[in-house]
Design a protein that fits this description.
The chain has 13 helices and no strands. α3 packs across α9, α4 runs antiparallel to α12 and α5 runs parallel beside α7.
């Protein structure tokens, strides 16, 4: 008798589900941890420290796993582009945005990353866009608009510094971050990027981005700021190791096992986790408008992800 073939893995297969849950919970929590970093040091220095640690840890992980470490000429150019768009522009705009709006709202807006990812992929990589995906994206955008209206009204009613204008600024910064991250994501889909060892590409991109962050910080903020608060450094380490070095390999494990479509369900769950944390620790105020907007966002993302599959 021949041994029966192993059934194909699904998102509910334990070896896939466990890393999926770990990644989703960690990425859902990082938005609040970022907010806790904002007072102790200039955001650009916090971003620098995060990716110095994360990049070094990623390189160490590669060496331990005895995987390929070096890139070819095209790989270094791609890593530089990723470093600029993902680990400089994206994260500096996110950190700045959380000065003006709650971490949960930033996470919800960032969940719309699937839209520019798909649009840029359509333009550059000629990937198709389904009708269900487009309808889902439209519903999600409508939900975000309701959440934004709620946040704007709250800011005006409580006399928040800057009022509704500060909310609009925070959302604007988040949207710029989303577009920057999307460019990095789509760059990873080109043939030259696919030929590179993935962990090495990400690790070097982090370190290149950290050098750029440090240069920008020196020019704009002056000498490095090293807070004495151990809670701050605990947050930096959590964001670097758990939020980057641990989660990237786990997420790639899920993608390899079931594909990018099922793996994208994390983008539906992450803003839910972030909003729950924001409600518990930031005092996010819910209203009928906010609840309706959240329902539309989740429903739209579900439809978009299903269409993307």
């Amino acid at each position: 008798m021949t041994k029966s073939a192993e059934a194909p893995a699904t998102l509910l297969t334990p070896r896939v589900l466990i890393p999926f849950i770990i990644v989703t919970l960690i990425w859902g929590s990082t938005w609040f941890v970022i907010r806790e970093q904002l007072e102790a040091a200039p955001p650009v220095w916090s971003v620098t420290y995060r990716f110095v640690i994360a990049g070094a840890a990623m390189i160490a992980l590669i060496l331990v796993r005895r995987e390929a470490l070096w890139l070819d000429k095209a790989g270094w150019a791609i890593a530089t582009m990723m470093g600029l768009t993902q680990f400089v522009l994206n994260y500096n705009f996110v950190y700045s945005a959380e000065k003006y709006v709650t971490s949960g709202l930033v996470a919800v807006v960032f969940a719309l990353l699937i839209i520019p990812n798909s649009v840029f992929a359509r333009l550059w990589l000629k990937t198709p866009l389904s009708r269900a995906f487009l309808i889902g994206c439209g519903i999600a955008v409508g939900g975000v608009a309701l959440l934004l209206l709620h946040e704007y009204r709250v800011a005006e009613s409580i006399g928040k510094v800057g009022g509704g204008a500060s909310v609009m600024l925070g959302i604007g910064l988040t949207l710029v971050a989303v577009c920057s991250a999307s460019v990095s994501n789509v760059v990873q889909g080109i043939d030259a990027a696919r030929r590179q060892p993935m962990l090495a590409l990400v690790g070097w991109a982090m370190l290149i981005g950290a050098v750029m962050d440090a240069t920008f910080a020196l020019i704009t903020q002056g000498s490095p700021v090293f807070p004495r608060d151990p809670y701050y450094w605990g947050g930096v380490t959590y964001l670097a190791i758990a939020g980057s070095t641990l989660t990237f390999p786990l997420y790639y494990t899920v993608i390899r096992a079931v594909g990018p479509g099922p793996a994208a369900w994390s983008s539906v769950l992450i803003p839910v986790i972030a909003m729950l944390i924001s409600t518990a620790f930031e005092g996010y105020h819910w209203s009928g408008l906010a609840i309706s907007g959240s329902i539309l966002v989740i429903a739209g993302l579900v439809l978009a992800v299903r269409g993307k599959e």
